Amino acid sequence: MSHSLSYNKLESKEWGSKVIDKLAEYIKEEQPQLKGFNRRGLYRMKQFYETYKDQTDLIEMTRKVSWTHNLIIMSSAKTIEGKEFYLRLSDKERYPKRELKRQ
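^ that's the sequence the OP posted. Answer follows.
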């Protein structure tokens, strides 16, 4: 497998389960100490990218909260406005993940 994936491949329909599986396998072999780069984790990273790639104003907010908080917000809030609201709330209130899920 090539050491880098082209941006065009990431944006194309070629970014399917086989590519994800190969990439997860490659990372596991090359960097076994890294956690979260399995099939599920890579799909979540891709979803995160697709959600926020055109939302430059929200990118900074996503950096202020944990990956777990970002995953909760990304999967629970259906609109960009909702995601922005919960990102701001999470940053301001410093909610634990259980409280964020409840909100």
